[in-house]
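Input chain follows. Return structure tokens only.
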Amino acid sequence: MTDGAALPMALSRMVFELKEKGLLHQAVTCGHAFGGDLEAINIYTGLLACKAVAGADVIIAAMGPGIVGSGSRYGFTGVEQGEIINAVTVLGGKPVAIPRISFADVRERHRGISTIPVPPWGRSP
């Protein structure tokens, strides 16, 4: 879990539920986030810890709950998705980006595939 949103991993109900169901074996916090089974300095060391220490074959790298946004192209904490994809590539991994898809959100920019993640996936500011 990165520090792009809530910092304490304990605030993530999803991590707790996935671990309880045996779908998540270890959780790593990086940057200023804390409370993971392992803690790392940044996304690069977080990914390396997942692979080398936790023995992960698949890594899901994302921020915790509480994303912040201003409604502008680069004014949201999810812009870090582009950096996560870059870090995975630099370290020799194969990134898979999963877009936000919703047909229930009343905000037009979030209907269908949200336009929010598109900028960081396609270019840097």
